[in-house]
Amino acid sequence: MIETIHAARASAIHRARLLGVAGVASMYVAWFRDGPPGLIPQMWVPAITIGGMTAASLSIGVSWSPLLASTGVLMGVRGAISMLLGSCSPGW
Questions:
Q1: What is the value of pTM for the model shown?
Q2: In angstroms, rounded to a whole number, what is the distance separating the alpha carbons of residues 25 and 69?
Q3: Where are any strands of DSSP class E within the chain?
């Protein structure tokens, strides 16, 4: 936000519009996920088995959250990959 405020006028207007569009898009994703329509599932679980156990029983899946996507954008690719690898570790 601070960078947007101090940027050139054309760039600042473009970034502010992009921020507004992203906010509206995340509002719609959250509404269709949590609201009465319920068109987007809370979590997508792949239809796989690992060692005779289903992915659902192992809590393997993808949660659809605009907050997580925006956090990933702010962190950058290196931080996001690091967190992905950390979540896939056995957790000893």
A1: 0.53
A2: 12
A3: 43-44, 49-50, 53-54, 62-63
